[in-house]
Amino acid sequence: MNEYTGRTVSEAIAAGLKDLNLTAETAHIEVLDEGHSGVFGLGSRPAVVRISALDAEPEPVTDTEQMPEAQPVAEAAPELQPQIEPEPQAEPEPESSPEPESAATDEDDRVLTLSREFLQRMLDLMHLQTQVEATIQTPQLPEDDPVYYLNILGEDLGILIGRRGETLNAIQYLVRLYANRHLHYWPRIEIDVEGYKQRRVVSLQKLAHTMADRAAGSGKTVVLEAMPARERRLIHLALRDRDDVYTESVGEGENRKVTIVPTA
Q: Which of 5-14, 32-41, 177-186, 249-258 is the least confident region?
């Protein structure tokens, strides 16, 4: 883990994310000291945060034969509700989605209430007719924290998603930042719009198995399109139990891609 300082917590986080080439989606952030501005510069101390990567991925492969990049999912235009590419038919059934809800504690209720009320205020200020459903989901891996899932319901909400979900990710970061300022830790808050992310999970799981079958059948590595860290992780998880292929990630930054490599 790496520690970073700044005049404020936000400044320290921004410096750390830039240095590690991470985003709030792919980083574990712990506030060690919120700092103090002092009086006329006296008694001041910097804010200190500790940052590490959530998405620990395998090292890039250097000598693989690449298939033409798959273009699995159409991007969502800001002004339209995103459309999901027709799903292949001959596929293993993906895990059911959404994830099952877990039993809530008082702290869970506090996180849900705090984040839901802040999100709803944001949406009201945007003059959108919406309501927010809040649930707790069981994580995919036993070592992961529970997911506080907030699903925005309404009409004509494509503007909240943006290109490749960029607008939605920005909204999610603001909600997480607000929660951290009040709770002093970073709960796993997931913001969705009309179940868009849940549908994307199912689509990516099916895509992963389709491309894995192609790689295993041809004996050649298949390279997927560039994806954000969260979606690359979903591909890795979908194929981790298959013995005929394995996955690795190659590239840097926004061009980082998942490769599916046949074992035979």
A: 32-41
Q: pLDDT tens digit string along 36-65?
A: 665 444 556 787 878 877 754 444 444 444
Contacts of residues 180-183 at CB distance under 8 Å and 24 or more positions apart, as own/partner, are 180/29, 180/31, 181/9, 182/114, 183/110, 183/111, 183/114
Residue 48 lies in a domain: yes
Rounded CA gap, 78 and 116, in Å?
Answer: 23
Residue 230 placed within a domain: no
Sequence-ordered strand ranges (E) for 143-244: 147-154, 188-193, 222-223
- Say whether both 38 and 110 belong to one domain: no
Phi, psi of 134 (to 5 degrees): -120, 125
Per the structure, how many domains does the chain have? 2
- pTM value is 0.52
Quick: pLDDT tens for 161-210.
887 788 998 999 999 999 999 999 999 999 999 988 888 889 999 999 99
Mapping DSSP to helix (H, G, I), strand (E, B) and coil, where does residue 154 land?
A: strand
Q: Bridge partners of 188?
A: 147
Residue 238 falls within a domain, yes or no?
no
Q: Judging by DSSP bridges, how do beta strands 222-223 and 257-262 pair with one another? A: antiparallel
Residues 111 and 32 reside in one and the same domain: no
Q: What is the CATH number of the domain that holds 168?
A: 3.30.300.20
